[in-house]
Amino acid sequence: MKIGLVGYGGAGKSTVFSALTGIDPSSGRGGLASIRVPDQRVDALAQLCRPRKTTYAEITFQDFPSGAFAPRGRSLGGAILGEMRTLDVLAEVCDAFSQPLESAVQTVADFRAELLLSDLAIVERRLERLARERGDPGEQRLLERVRRCLEEEQELRVLGLTQEEQRRLSGYRFLTLKPRILVLNVSEEAVTGGPGPLAERAADWDLEVVVMSAPIERELAELAPQDARTFLDDIGLDSGARDRFIAACYRKLDLITFLTAGEDEVRAWPVRRGTSAVEAAAKVHSDIARGFIRAEVVRVEDYLELGGEGACRKAGKLAIEGRDYQVRDGDVIHFRFNV
């Protein structure tokens, strides 16, 4: 999962990147950094199984070089818009420390308009070509529907596309189809105040909002876990921005986590909600999906309470599922296969 920190120049994107990843942004060259997704279930399984390897889910953040994004009031360049199309999630960082939240609303609206216009330009060019070449009528009808949506200043995420329609449009990598998170970069004093006047507009625009203060996050990163908990309690926060950011990403991507456990490895596997057993098997290894026989599924709470797969089998807590079984969050799965 690759999340890009995007937004107008001067919003504090590199500072947010540093606060989330612990990497010094002073070079101005941008970069990639991965962080581990905390998961108490993985911790508990590792303690029980004592595996040779423990692997957590990871999120990769991308910070772009200094100057890649134009300041507000100037159009975003084609090069940076193209790079944004390669991302899984757009995390729009908005300056809410040097301007009031009322002004931040307009900043977010302006950035949103840039994305809409960029997608609309792609659609219009493709429709012109289809008209000249008398191309696929089905594609033309779908793109005309997309154009109407964009002309009405609606993002494509709200269009209600079917899976097949999303598949047909995937090659265009539309920006307004991508999940988007709004990161409000606020002062230390404003961190507990919430998004204020942005809350209603964010809901209208289908945006998750994460309010954070980079100085607070830097201080948290330097504290021991217990000291960090005390610090958060003192300032009135339930969790740090990193945890809230991860939770927002999982909600926007509609991700769940299944687990595999054994002596070799305990591992968390993030997948989309609705993923079938055979699709989950392919995440582990293509050979497992190719030779899929069945999935032996135990709920993680049963696995931990009873002490492992064998005990769950004896207690009748192990379910035998076929290839079309929809994986649930917290399933511990042992795939049986033959190739």
Task: Write up what this structure looks like.
It is a single chain. The chain is of the alpha/beta class and 339 residues long. It folds into two domains: 1-39 and 57-255, 3-Layer(aba) Sandwich (Rossmann fold), CATH 3.40.50; 274-337, Beta-grasp domain (Ubiquitin-like (UB roll)), CATH 3.10.20. It is 43% helix and 21% strand. The protein contains 14 helices and twelve strands. The strands form three sheets. The protein has a six-stranded mixed β-sheet with strand order 2-4-1-5-6-7, sandwiched between helices. Strands 3-9-8 form a three-stranded mixed β-sheet, with helices on both faces. Helix 1 (13-21) packs parallel to helix 8 and helix 4 runs antiparallel to helix 5 (137-151). The longest helix is centred in the middle third of the chain and has 33 residues, at 101-133. It is globular and about 65 Å long. The mean pLDDT is 92.
